[in-house]
């Protein structure tokens, strides 16, 4: 074999090796893209779950505030009723004395 034939043979071997490496790189790249797509789907699910959790927490906080306000109003009403009853008892006691 001449030097030119050896060089051509080596170049052909290198070309076939390059094709193999390229196909391996493409297959790995496809796997990475698939994993990336799956991660995006999972991220979207997590964001949806997080938004739902935030909404539920905000509803809970609003409910607690509403209950607190309602309880405060009840105590105010009870205070008014109790003072009215004390006034009536005082009135009756003053009448009967």
Entry summary:
This protein is mostly helical and 97 residues long. It has 1 helix and no strands. The longest helix is centred in the middle third of the chain and has 94 residues, at 3-96.
> What form results from the Cα inertia axes?
rod-shaped
Helix segment tally = 1
Taken in chain order, the helices and strands follow as H
Tell me the total number of β-strands: 0
Distance N to C terminus = 140 Å
Q: Major sheet: size, sense and barrel closure?
A: none
Please identify the structural class as seen in this structure.
mainly alpha
- Percent of residues in β-strands: under 5%
The overall pLDDT, averaged over residues, is 89
Unreliable residue runs: none
Indicate the percent of residues in helices.
Answer: over 70%
From the alpha carbons, calculate the radius of gyration and give it in angstroms: 41 Å
Architecture overview:
It contains one helix and no strands. The chain has 97 residues and is mainly α. 0% of the residues are buried. The mean pLDDT is 89.
Topology, element by element:
Elements: H1 3-96
């Amino acid at each position: 074999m001449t030097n030119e034939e050896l060089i051509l043979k080596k170049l052909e071997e290198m070309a076939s090796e390059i094709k193999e490496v390229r196909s391996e790189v493409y297959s790995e790249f496809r796997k990475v893209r698939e994993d990336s797509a799956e991660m995006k789907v999972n991220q979207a699910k997590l964001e949806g779950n997080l938004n739902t959790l935030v909404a539920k927490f905000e509803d809970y906080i609003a409910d607690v505030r509403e209950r607190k306000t309602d309880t405060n109003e009840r105590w105010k009403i009870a205070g008014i009723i109790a003072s009215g009853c004390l006034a009536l008892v005082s009135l009756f006691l003053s009448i009967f004395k």
